[in-house]
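> forwarded from #structure-qc
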């Protein structure tokens, strides 16, 4: 088990985009905490590799799903309930950031692709989880957002708009689901050292420019995102809802 106990033993968690990056580390730590975990991703080979690496045994299952497709989302949650009996936690981690031109010059097809992956997928998964959790009057939904949803950044316009939408969705769902004892929160990191953000941190000059504006003097590691998210999944956060925790090394207050 991890060094910190969040009281998640035997909880059932769905982690979207759980085959790599932050999602993989979330799944790994949830398993270490004794939870039962359902991961999803679009590519079966990636899921198979993650399952082999995570070694979760009968506490881990993987479901191939494109979360922007309602039928795939329905199947994802149906498989999770069939295997583990219920869903206690949803972590919406899937994200896509394809660098774009100015917003006016962005092709509508790229706009649709980015919003579908980030915003529509988060909506469809949150909706399904909420319907299941509401019958049990208990649940946690945690959305992985981004500081891009707070600050306009060159090349990240559509991604930032999608993440800003996720944070508004977080607040709306929190208000609507509070009577059912379901808490909905978000974690918004800056640049995190994953394959997803490799174009930023692997370029030494660009990385120096990014770090220059971070008081902590470094970009985030996956653990910096995982632990705030798991805290929000725990009973210790039962009176916290509708909030976004910025995980940015102080860049938002510098």
């Amino acid at each position: 088990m991890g060094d910190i106990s969040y009281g998640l033993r035997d909880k059932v968690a769905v982690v979207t985009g759980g085959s790599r990056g932050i999602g993989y580390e979330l799944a790994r730590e949830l398993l270490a905490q004794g939870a039962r975990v359902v991961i999803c991703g679009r590519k079966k080979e990636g899921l198979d590799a993650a399952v082999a690496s995570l070694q979760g045994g009968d506490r881990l299952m993987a479901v191939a799903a494109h979360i922007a497709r309602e039928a795939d989302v329905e199947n994802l949650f149906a498989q999770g309930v069939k295997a583990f009996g219920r869903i206690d936690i949803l972590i919406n981690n899937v994200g896509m950031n394809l660098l774009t031109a100015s917003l006016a010059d962005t092709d509508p097809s790229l706009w649709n692709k980015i919003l579908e992956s980030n915003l529509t997928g988060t909506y469809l998964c949150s909706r399904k989880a909420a319907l299941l959790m509401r019958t049990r009057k208990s649940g946690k939904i945690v959305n992985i957002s981004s500081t891009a949803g707070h600050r306009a950044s060159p090349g990240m316009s559509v991604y930032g708009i999608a993440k800003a939408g996720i944070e508004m969705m977080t607040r709306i769902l929190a208000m609507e689901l509070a009577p059912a004892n379901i808490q909905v929160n978000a974690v918004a990191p800056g640049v995190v050292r994953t394959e997803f953000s490799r174009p930023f941190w692997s370029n030494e000059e660009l990385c120096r420019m990014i770090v220059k504006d971070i008081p902590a003097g470094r970009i985030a590691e996956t653990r910096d995102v995982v632990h705030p998210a798991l805290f929000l999944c725990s009973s210790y956060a039962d009176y916290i809802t509708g909030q976004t925790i910025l995980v940015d090394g102080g860049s938002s207050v510098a």
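QC bot note: DSSP finds eight helices and seven strands in the chain. The mean pLDDT is 93.
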